[in-house]
Amino acid sequence: MIKKGHWIGYYKYDKQAYQERAGFDKTNFEVEILTIENDNFIGKVQDDITTGGMEGIGEIFGKVNGDKIEFVKQMPIMTLLVNKKGTRKTFNKKHRKIYYYGTFSNDWKSVNGQWKFKFGFIWIGIIPIPIIPAKGTWTMSLQE
After folding, report:
1. 14-50 pLDDT, tens per residue?
2. Tens digit of each residue's pLDDT (9 = 90 or more) over 72-130
3. Is there a contact between 40 and 18 (Cβ–Cβ < 8 Å)?
4. Which of 32, 38, 42, 50 is at 20 to 30 A from 4, Cα to Cα?
5. What is the rounded CA–CA span in Å between residue 144 and residue 7?
6. Integer Cα distance of 113 and 103 in angstroms
7. What does 48-115 look like in DSSP terms, one character per residue?
8. Which long-range contacts (CB under 8 A, 24 or more apart) does 77-83 make?
9. What DSSP string describes 110-139?
10. Which residues contact 65 (CB under 8 A, 6 or more apart)?
């Protein structure tokens, strides 16, 4: 079972070109698990913008099944990587949902897994902008 408290971790893109576009080797984040009920949990997440993260404090909603974890990360501000290294564009709308899957370590104090978000569009006025799907790996550890 996941433990309430402060977790720190990072995520990376699978495609080297995307990681280079992000401008960093990895993006750090912090998670605060606030509520656990049965196998479900709710928390807050904040990316480190100095390592290429998205702005704002997001929410996570997840579930633990055995030693497996899955959750959805919903950030409040849409952040898109543009062609130049480390260049981003933000929009005043929620980012697409990001899906995280992972496996706990034997001591339940760390998790490793994969993340992804799916293809879709965001609308800027009447102009649709395609969002290319992306995926990668992530890890986080409980801070005691």
Report:
1. 988 888 878 889 999 999 999 999 999 999 999 999 9
2. 999 998 887 776 666 777 878 888 899 999 999 999 999 999 999 887 777 777 888 77
3. no
4. 50
5. 9
6. 6
7. -GGGTPPSSEEEEEEEEETTEEEEEEE-SSEEEE-SSTT-EEEESSPPPPEEEEEEE-TTSSEEEEEE
8. 78/122, 79/54, 79/55, 80/129, 80/131, 81/18, 81/21, 81/22, 82/21, 83/21
9. EEEEEEEE--EEEEETTEEEEE--EEEEEE
10. 39
Token digits of residue 123: 């609308």
Task: Give the C-alpha separation, 141 to 118, whole Å.
Answer: 26
Tokens of 86: 């480390």
CB 139 within 8 A of CB 10: yes
User: Could you report how far apart the first and last alpha carbons of the chain are, in Å?
Assistant: 16
Q: How many residues does the chain have?
A: 144
